[in-house]
Target: N-acetyltransferase
Amino acid sequence: MTQSAGQGGAIWRAMTMANLPDVMAIAVAVHPDYPEDEAIFAERLALYPAGCLCLVDADGAAGYVLSHPWRPCDIPALNALLGAIPADAAAYYIHDLALLPHTHGTGAASDVVARLVEHARNSGFAGMALVAVNRSAGFWQRHGFRETHDAALDRKLASYDDAARYMTREF
Ligand SMILES: CC(C)(COP(=O)(O)OP(=O)(O)OC[C@H]1O[C@@H](n2cnc3c(N)ncnc32)[C@H](O)[C@@H]1OP(=O)(O)O)[C@@H](O)C(=O)NCCC(=O)NCCS
Model:
């Protein structure tokens, strides 16, 4: 995926291993209730670099997104290594999208979601999935995602919290 500039002058760039300290600092600030080790971020970046982007503005790193192919109707456990992208990974999974508060409302989040949708569609995936946390379900609904329920998935969601929602978008 190529670079693109948002309304506030921020740019989405391909993430590199050198960005991980900044990405971790954003994760700690934005997701204090869902701590994940740097090894989790590094592994996803190594396994699927095309799905990992950093938002950069005049002050430096301001957000990130991690995404990768995954099995439909399945949720990778929090703070757990994937091991590999599964051979039956027919869905495109957004693991995390996090922006620092000063960039909210600039359209940067919507910009990268549109790019990920385009990437997933062009790559032949059947659809997309994510776990919405932090009351973000409304944001995802605006991008065509709908809540999906399944008994086994609902048990896995317990590793997040009661407010977490599994959401999907079919193509
Ligand atoms: C969720 C998040 C990425 C949205 O970022 P954002 O900067 O508000 O996104 P955008 O500027 O692209 O906003 C797009 C639109 O969605 C709306 N929106 C944002 N969050 C929303 C929510 N929770 N519910 C409903 N609408 C929402 C905005 O008001 C905006 O509306 P507009 O276009 O009519 O002005 C951002 O709030 C964030 O990083 N939150 C913390 C981390 C997080 O919860 N990530 C999601 C994990 S699954």
Observations:
- The chain has five helices and eight strands.
